[in-house]
Design goal:
Elements (H helix, E strand, L loop, with lengths): L7 H7 L16 E7 L3 H16 L2 E3 L8 E6 L4 H20 L4 E5 H7 L2 H5 L5 E3 L7 H9 L4 E3 L22 E5 L1 E2 L10 H5 L3 E2 L2 H13 L4 E5 L7 E4 L4 E4 H9 L6 E5 L8 H9 L6 E3 L7 H6 L6 H14 L4 E8 L6 H14 L3 E6 L7 H5 L6 H24 L5 E9 L6 E5 L5 E5 L8 E9 L3 E6 L2
Parallel strand pairs: 1-2, 1-3, 3-4, 4-5, 5-6, 7-10, 10-13, 14-15, 15-16, 19-21
Antiparallel strand pairs: 8-9, 11-12, 17-18, 17-20, 18-19, 20-21
Helix pairs in contact: 9-10, 13-15
Bound molecules: iron/sulfur cluster.
Length: 471
């Protein structure tokens, strides 16, 4: 599955860390839940829906596992390693269950959907298993578990979008928020579990999305990221007006809420991204010039085996078109090395494509066979692990050069930065991101979170632009 972008700062803040950290302990409620999330931004957004459903049923949040009556892990199944991380975390929860035998432990998300009831056999500690489309059933599943039963609901839906549920912002900086616009994926990339763990594509009611973004803006948020596995296939039919709302139209509706509300989106698909989307980005200054466009491989032969439905040439033409219409657009991607039958030539094609595109940011992994996927059923995972690692190492090394060049070319320029918080390195400095999603750090002066500040960049590191506010 593509990485639904969490940039480094957010990634570091969230991955594996007790996600509930920033949740203010809600001591009013008499029952408490603790939730921890792994994987992509979609999972983090889902945990905010889960928090809302639980609050609706009298649960308050806690950041302290030992105080929780209910512990939930929102799991990722994208690679074997992600599942191992969850299993290890579950063993760490054993002590809490020992101390509090009536505590309920539940697993949510893609690994829950992939394993279903088998999860209960493999992990005895677990009481409830809930798939991504079944979170409304959580209260009744908890009741069953409180009655001493193990409970499972992994039904995938063709229309569930949780559109009517106002998410509770977890770990929020009060400035940026994720808003999911669709669920599931109709593509069948041969290496990917998502179509099996998140089901068929369905687009959320466009007006409920605009309403959620308006509420966020009124609450002081200044940036929304519209989330979907493949946002370009967003497609909402408004029967009342007999119109079809495309992704470009939806972006425009959100951008029109206020010029002070920045709009980002993730993830795009090379076969579906349209000129209409690029023209809409041109038209609205508050739609950020940044696109996450996973390519996965630079070899057309491998792309065909991956069932990505586009060729190397098609992808490069898309990048050239983006650069033609949005010259300073930031571009990031996902790459997989060592996919079944990948040759040295294929690998060199991936490197040369990266050389052409010079991505600002890239999420790079070696192929991890996922049970039940098309690739697992059809192809042998025949590239030796050592070769996979060596190719990944070469890819990362090349990307490091490109991302540093991408940072260095910004020195001397001035960017509009949305302040997200105090820099980790110094209380006297603030950090935020530029339009192109680059992290910028500058002296605090009288600025604060949520402000837009024009910052002139004086120098940079591999991951951060360093500057000073200019009037
Ligand atoms: S587009 Fe492909 S890789 Fe992305 S979620 Fe869908 S099936 Fe997975």
């Amino acid at each position: 599955m593509e990485t639904l972008v969490l940039d480094k700062t957010q990634d570091e803040a969230r991955q594996g860390e007790a996600y509930a950290a920033a949740l203010a302990d809600d001591m009013v409620a008499h029952k408490h839940f603790y939730i921890e999330s792994y994987g992509c931004a979609m999972n983090f957004a889902d945990s905010e829906v889960v928090a809302s459903i639980l609050q609706e049923h009298g649960y308050g949040a806690t950041t302290q596992t030992e105080l929780a009556d209910l512990i939930l892990i929102n799991t990722c199944s994208i690679r074997e390693k992600a599942e191992q991380t969850v299993r290890k975390r579950l063993t760490e929860f054993k002590q809490f269950k020992k101390a509090k035998p009536d505590m309920i432990i539940g697993v949510l998300g893609c690994m829950a959907e992939r394993l279903k009831a088998k999860f209960l056999e493999e992990e005895k500690l677990v009481d409830i298993v809930v798939g991504p489309d079944a979170y409304r059933a959580l209260p009744s599943l908890i009741e069953e578990a409180n009655g001493g039963q193990k409970a499972v609901n992994v039904l995938l839906s063709r229309d569930e979008t949780y559109a009517d549920i106002a998410p509770i912002r977890l770990n929020s900086n009060g400035v940026t928020a994720f808003v999911s616009i669709m669920r599931g994926c109709n593509n069948m990339c041969s290496f990917c579990v998502v179509p099996f763990t998140r089901g068929r594509e369905r687009s959320r009611d466009a007006y409920s999305i605009v309403k959620e973004c308006e509420a966020l803006f009124n609450d002081g948020y200044r940036e929304v990221t519209l989330l979907g596995q493949n946002v370009d296939s967003y497609h909402f039919i408004d029967d009342t007006k007999d119109v079809i709302i495309s992704f470009a139209k939806l972006m425009e509706m959100v951008a029109q809420i206020s010029p002070l509300l920045r709009v980002r989106f993730s993830t795009s698909h090379p076969k579906d991204i349209t000129d209409e989307v690029l023209f809409t980005m041109q038209q609205y200054e508050n739609i950020c010039n940044y696109i996450h466009l996973p390519v996965q491989s630079g070899s057309s032969r491998v792309l065909q085996m991956m069932n990505r439905t586009y060729s190397r040439e098609w992808y490069i033409a898309k990048v050239n078109r983006i650069r033609e219409l949005l010259p300073d657009c930031g571009l990031s991607t996902d790459m997989i090395t060592g996919f079944c039958t990948e040759t040295e030539e294929d690998h060199q094609e991936s490197l040369s494509l990266m050389e052409h595109c010079k991505f600002e940011l890239a999420y790079m992994y070696f192929y991890s066979e996922r049970p039940g996927t098309l690739a697992a059923r059809r192809f042998e995972d025949d590239v030796p692990l050592e070769t996979k690692k060596r190719r990944l190492h070469e890819m990362v090394a090349l990307h490091r050069i490109h991302s540093l060049q991408g940072m260095q070319k910004e020195v001397g320029k001035t960017f509009k930065v949305l302040v997200e918080g105090v820099s980790k390195k110094s209380e006297d400095e603030l950090y935020g991101r530029s339009d192109q999603n680059k992290v910028v750090v500058f002296p605090k002066e009288n600025f604060k979170k949520g402000d837009y500040v024009m910052v002139k960049v004086n120098t940079c590191t591999a991951g951060t632009l360093i500057g000073k506010a200019v009037k």
